[in-house]
Amino acid sequence: MKLSLLNLSIGYSRQLPIANxxxxxxxxxxxxxxxxxxxxxxxxxxxxxxxxxxxxGEIIIAGKPLGQYSRSELAGVLSIVSxxxxxxxxxxxxxLVSLGRFPHTNWLGKLTVKDLTPxxxxxxxxxxxxxxxxxxYEISDxxxxxxxxxxxxxxxxxxxxxxEPTAFLDMPNKYEIVNLLRRLTRTKQxxxxxxxxxxxxxxxxxxxxxLMIDGTVHEGAPEDxxxxxxxARMFEGTKLQFDDCKRMFNIKRPDAKPS
Length: 259
Description:
Distance between the termini: 62 Å
Strand order of the largest sheet: 6-7-8-3-9-10
CATH superfamily: P-loop containing nucleotide triphosphate hydrolases
Order of helices and strands: EEEHEEHEHHHEHEHEEHHEE
Strand content: 25-35%
Shape: globular
Largest sheet: 6 strands, mixed
Number of domains: 1
CATH topology: Rossmann fold
Number of strands: 12
Oligomer: single chain
Structural class: alpha/beta
Helix content: 25-40%
Radius of gyration: 19 Å
Number of helices: 9
């Protein structure tokens, strides 16, 4: 399912982090949203999910303006994993993941046998099946994050937005989660946008990067944004530098003093 941003400006009242975006995500693409703190990554995610209004411009999903979707229609095509803490401590992992099925249930919210398959599959894919009977307060931050991702997968939408899904994970799990997202675009035909500070992982796994710099968003393949020095621009004025050969960032170190 294709997602397009047309002349989109986002922000809060007079604060305008991003103006006049012209971006798109094609069917079955994995896009990494990159930017420094305060660049507007979460704001963009919330605007696409219709959790806050755009200042101007349009968001088009499958050829239809975002504003023309009812709440139930939108929940059927788009799901989001937010960085905001949700009070779910006394739910079990299975109960939390099952919440993803509510847009597909009747007005009573009762799950049917048909709903069990996506719930089971989501827990298996994210590695939380063994935790299904544990309460959310009994599991680690990383396991909690996996459960939240499983809930979005159980919702079974064509588009998934994830705001820093690897924030609480150790290095092996960071790679596993992003690799999982990539597999979902290939095997389940999902269209996925995720924000991250893990540049090396994003460059290895993402089809494209959306790079937020100075109020604009640059779109391109990871290698293209590296070669045209847009990635390096993001860290101007810091001690980080981009190694074009190794395609990774490192710390600028002063030359060794002569002996």
